[in-house]
Amino acid sequence: MTYVLYELATGRNHSQQPGPIDNPDVGKWGVKETDKTGVWNELTLDFDAAPVKKIYTKTEFLELFTDDELAGILIAAKSVIEIELFLTKLQLADSVDLDYQPAINAINGMAAAGLLTQERVTVILSE
Known about the structure:
- By secondary structure, this protein is an alpha+beta fold.
- The protein has two domains: 2-48, no CATH class; 55-126, no CATH class.
- The chain is 39% helix and 21% strand.
- The protein has five helices and seven strands, in the order ββββββαααβαα.
- It has helices at 58-62, 67-77, 81-92, 101-112, 118-126; strands at residues 2-7, 13-17, 29-34, 39-41, 46-48, 55-56, 96-97.
- The strands form three sheets. The protein has a three-stranded antiparallel β-sheet with strand order 2-1-3, with no helix packed on it. Strands 4-5 form a two-stranded antiparallel sheet. The chain has a two-stranded antiparallel ribbon with strand order 6-7.
- A hairpin with a 5-residue loop joins strand 1 (2-7) and strand 2.
- It starts with a strand and ends with a helix.
C-alpha cells in the first residue's frame, strides 16, 4: 500500500511513502491510500497506469515488417532518397521509438510510397 500526501488546492502529489502519513495540515493537504502505481493524476487523485514506451532494438523493429515489406523497402531505397535516408538513420540508431514523430512519419511515408498498406501501418505503430 502507498500513502500519497497531495495538495488539496491543486491535487499535486507532494510526497508518497509505504506507511501512513502523520499529522498533515488538513486545510492544505489530503492523504490518499492506494494500491495502484504509475503516474499521479491530479484530477482523479490516484495513480494512472504508466504509459508503455514503444522502444525497440533495431532487430525487434525490423521483425515488425514482413520479409516482402522489407524487400520492397530495400529495393525502393535504391531510387528513393527518403527511404535510403531512413535506412541509414536506422543503421546509426541505438533503438527505434515508435512514439517519436519522425519514426511515425517515416512509416507513414512508406505507406504513401506504396511500400506498406495503411492497415500494416496501423499494426506496426500499435505494436
